[in-house]
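BUG-325 | component: ligand-complex export | severity: low

The export step for PBG jobs runs without errors, but we want the raw record kept on the ticket for reference. Input record follows.
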Amino acid sequence: MHLIRRNRILRQSYAVRSLVSETILTPNDFIVPLFIIEGAGVREEIPSMSGYFRMSLDLTVKEVKELWAMGLKSVLLFIKCKDELKDNKGTEALNPDGLMQRSIKAIKDACPDMLVMTDIALDPFSSYGHDGIVENGQIVNDATVEVLAQMSVSHARAGADFVAPSDMMDGRIIAIREALEADGFTNTGIMAYSAKYASCFYGPFRDALDSAPGFGDKKTYQMDYANRKEAVKEVLMDVEEGADIVMVKPAMAYLDIIREVKNAVEIPVSAYHVSGEYAMIKAAAKMGWLDENKAVIESLTGIKRAGADLIATYYAKHAVQLLNS
Ligand code: PBG
């Protein structure tokens, strides 16, 4: 053969592959989700998320310092609310001394440079396990949005750098932006879970926070996974309403959506590599069926290649350890 073009030339050594690599993971790509519980010295492994823990605030603060030292620059906070504090309106979510508000303060005090993002949705605080207020078996939109806006201001007051509404109510981004502006929080960012699908892959997360819906499912607010154009509509509306970062969630079954969104907007796109995606790799690795380290890097590289500028992942720390080794 006398071939003029031999594609294998650019693959023949580690050196040349490195030089022409199009996608390179760095610690700057990751957002680290953290699950915080009441108590001191508490570190509980989440059964369906082997190797991932719910931690009390004291241990969380230590963890955040360690993450910063490793080069990770952003955390996304979730709290596990006590059952007796849950109600239909998510009242505890607005408590200025609630676990979330105390956590934001403690983390910003201990590690001021770490970017602190907070989950905005009612489900951890809801007696129904839904992201919004329930009336006659329906998740009501507008009353929920009011609470979400107040919740965002409450987190901003506690020192949150970004709020991350994960609820999928209509009009919440503009409502949150206006509430933040009205309270003088002109530096608080909004990372909108814009294209969040009703997915079975959130199962382990709901174990972690004991937040599974008490009745029905989340299909009247989260998106139908059969839809692609709808994701672009959602994202463009959130951009108009004032989102600083838009998100696609989950990630691996939605790489086409990530790319579609990346092509549609000029602002950063994040992807959430969710709890079930973490659990799948963990489980296969435990069985000896997959090489965990390779699966982690390949998965995260694929998500970034698809168009994610940022990736929220339970594998962030593990990935950075691999990248640094
Ligand atoms: C709550 C919320 C969920 C996740 C992030 N925020 C669960 C849900 O919508 O039911 C899922 C994260 C994961 O599975 O890792 N609004």
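Assignee comment: Attached the raw record above. Residues 24-323 form a domain with the TIM Barrel fold (CATH 3.20.20.70).
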